[in-house]
Amino acid sequence: MKQVWKGAMLFLLALLPFASALAKPSEAEQVRKIIDKVNQHWQAVNSPEVRSFWDNAAYHTGNMEAYFLTGNEAYRAYSEAWATHNEWKGAKSDNRSEWKYSYGESDEYVLFGDYQICFQTYADLYMLDPDDKKIRRAREVMEYEMSTPNHDYWWWSDGLYMVMPVMTKLYKITHNPLYLEKLYEYLLYSDSIMFDKDENLYYRDAKYVYPKHKSLNGKKDFWARGDGWVLAGLAKVLKDLPEDYAHRAFFVEKFQKMAKAVAAIQQPEGYWTRSMMDPEHAPGPETSGTAFFTYGMLWGVNHGYLDEATYMPVIRKAWKYLSETALQKDGSVGYVQPIGEKAIPGQVVDAKSTANFGVGAFLLAACEYVRYLEAGTQADRAYWCQLAYQMAEPVLSNMAKGELQKNMQVEVSPTWDGRDKRVTYMECFGRLMAGIAPWLALPDDNTEEGAMRKQLREWALKAYANAVDPNSPDYLLWRNEGQPLVDAAYVAESFLRAFDQLWMPLDETTKKRYIEEFTQMRRIDPPYTNWLLFSATIESFLAKAGAPFDMYRINSAIRKVEEWYTGDGWYADGPSFAFDYYSSYVFHPMYLETLDALIDADKHSRLDYPKYYQRALKRAQKFSLVLERFISPEGTFPVFGRSIPYRMATMQPLALMAWYKELPAGVTPAQVRCGLTAVMKRMFASGNNFNEGGFLTIGFTGRQPNVADWYTNNGSLYMTSLAFLPLGLPASDAFWTDAPRDWTSKKAWSEQPFPKDHHWSDDIQTRDLY
C-alpha cells in the first residue's frame, strides 16, 4: 500500500507544475490576438485574387503559418483561393525554350525564384489535402531546372528565401534526392558571389559586394531585408532537412553564425536599420527585415539551434518593436520598406508604410513567438508526460537501485507456457526504454517536464548498468530461454533511438557487457517470423556501435521481410498472412531502424541500404495513414489479432512517422496528436491499467487477463510506451503547438471534407549492387 501511495503522490506532484504553467498564458494570448487582428485586417482589405509573384507569395508563407497555429479555416481558404486563381502555377509559360531566370515579371520567367516562392504554399496545401494538381507545376518546374547543368539560379539574396524551402518541401513529398543535392550546389554558387565570410552576412547580390560598393559612410552595406530573407530561409530549410543529410552540418553552422552576426548589430530600440552596419545610411526602423530576423532566431531557440539565454533578450527587444511600434491600431503593419533591393538614403519609411511581404514576415515572427511562449504549457503534451512518467517511474526508480525484481508485482497469462517468469523484467525494461528513449534524449532545461526527464534518464542509465552486471540483483535473463532475443532487440532499439544520450554515457565496462550479451544472442535460432528482425536490430546496433556484427543475419532478415511484404503497408508475419498488428509492433519500426543504423554506420554489402530504406519509409507512411484512419471519432481503434494487450503499441508506426517528421500527405501533425491523445485518454481513463504496485496489469483497457496470449506477462505490456515517440519532439514543435485538428474518421463521421484513400504501390526498385 505504501508503494501505491508513494506513486500517487509523485504523480500528483508532477501534475502541479503543469497546472501552474497552464495558468499563465497571458502573453501568448495577447500575441494570438495580435495575429488574428493583423491577418483579418489584411484579408479584409486585400483580395486573394492577385498574381503569384514573390510579394504576394511571401505574405502567404506567413498566412499559412497563422493557419497552422490558429486553425482558422478562413486563413487556409484565403491561400487556397489565391492558389486556385493562379492555377497552382508561378509564371505560366509552357514553352520551355523561352523559360528564363534573370529578373522579369512576365510569364516566361518560370525559372526565376520570385515566381517559385508560391510553390511553398502550394506544397503546404498539398500536405493538408493531397491532390496532384497542387504540386504538379512545382515539380515540373523544379525538376526541369535541376535537369540543367546550370547552378547559378540564386543570384540575389532574396532568392534563398524564395526557393530553398521549396526544395526541402518538395523533397519531403517526393524523396527525390536531387532536391537536396541541388540545394547545396545552388547555395554554394550564391555564397561564391554574395556571401561575406568575415561578417557571416549576405550582400543583396554581386553588385553590392564591398569594397566595390560602400554605404554612405564607407562601410559594408548589408541590406536588412536581404539578410532577413536568408536567415528565415535557413530556418525553414532546417525545419525540413533530414537528420542524415550529408550537408546538414553546413546549413546548421551557417544558420548559427549568421544569427550571431545579426544579433550583434541590433539597434537599442529592437529593430535593424536598412543598412545594417551603417545606421546613418538610412536611419530609422524597418519592419520586414526585423520580422524575418525575429522569426529566424525564435525558430532557432525553439528547436535547440540557438542558446535561449543569449538570444531571447535580442528577440524580446525585437518583439517589443514589432508589437508596439510597427503594429498600428487598425491592425496594419507599418515601417515596411517598399519593394526595392537596397537601403536608400532619404527614403521615407513610416507608420503608414506597409506591404504584403511585411505582413507575412510579421505573422511568421508572431506565430513562432507564440510557440516559444506556449512551450511546456500545452495540455496534450502535459498529459502525455504525466502518463509516461507514471508508467516509467515504478520500473526505473526500482531498477536503478537494483530492486525491480524484488518489488515488481508480476502477472502472467492464465495460459502461461511455463517458461522462466524472470523474462518479465527484461521485457518490461527493454520495451519501456524503446518507447521513452526519444523523450529522454531531449536536452535538459529548467522546466518541470525537464526535471522529470532528467530524473528518468538518471535512473535509466543506472538501470542499464544493472541490467548487464552479473553482480546486480537486477541482472536480466540474457542467457536462458529464447525470449531474451526479443527484448534484447528492444534494448538495442532504445540505444538506436537515443544513441548519444543513452549509449554513449555508459561506462566502458557496461558497454563491453552489452556487446557480449548482444553477441551471445546468436545462440538463438529465431523462428521464421518477425523474430528475424530482432536479430537484425541487434546486429545493426552492434554495427553502429563499432562492434563486430553479423551481416548475414541482417541481410537474410531484410530479404525475408521483402518476401513477406503483402502490399499497401502490410507485412505478413512469415510466409502466411496473419490479420494482427505485428506490422505495428515489429515490422515497420525495426526494419527502418535496422536499415538506418547500417547507413549511419556506413556499412555496405550487396544490398543498397539507402534505397531499401526509402522504400520501407514509404510503406511505413502508408501504414501510418491506415492507422490514423483506424482511430474512431470516439478515440477507439479496432481490436483484433494476437498480442492486443500491447495496447497503444498498435499506433507505433504512426507515432514513429510523427517523430521522424515523415507523416504522409493528408495526415497533419496536429491531427495525429489529437487522435493519439484521444486514444490514450479513452484507454487509460479508468486507471485500471495499473495494478496495486503501480505496474501495468494484463488487459487492453483494464484488467482483462483472458485476452493474454500464452507468452504474455505484464512486462510485455510496456510495449504500449512505443506510442510515446513524439515526446522526442521539443515542446515548441508544431506537433504540440499547432491548433487542434480532427483526425480523418472524426471528419468523415461529421460530414467534413476529408482526403480520399487509395492504393500505394512500390515505385522504388532494388537490385543487388554486385
UniProtKB/TrEMBL annotation:
<dbReference type="InterPro" id="IPR010905">
    <property type="entry name" value="Glyco_hydro_88"/>
</dbReference>
<feature type="domain" description="DUF2264">
    <location>
        <begin position="380"/>
        <end position="743"/>
    </location>
</feature>
<protein>
    <submittedName>
        <fullName>Glycosyl hydrolase family 88</fullName>
    </submittedName>
</protein>
<feature type="signal peptide">
    <location>
        <begin position="1"/>
        <end position="23"/>
    </location>
</feature>
<dbReference type="Pfam" id="PF07470">
    <property type="entry name" value="Glyco_hydro_88"/>
</dbReference>
<dbReference type="Pfam" id="PF10022">
    <property type="entry name" value="DUF2264"/>
</dbReference>
<dbReference type="InterPro" id="IPR016624">
    <property type="entry name" value="UCP014753"/>
</dbReference>
<dbReference type="GO" id="GO:0005975">
    <property type="term" value="P:carbohydrate metabolic process"/>
</dbReference>
<dbReference type="InterPro" id="IPR049349">
    <property type="entry name" value="DUF2264_N"/>
</dbReference>
<keyword id="KW-0732">Signal</keyword>
<dbReference type="InterPro" id="IPR012341">
    <property type="entry name" value="6hp_glycosidase-like_sf"/>
</dbReference>
<dbReference type="InterPro" id="IPR008928">
    <property type="entry name" value="6-hairpin_glycosidase_sf"/>
</dbReference>
<dbReference type="GO" id="GO:0016787">
    <property type="term" value="F:hydrolase activity"/>
</dbReference>
<keyword id="KW-0378">Hydrolase</keyword>
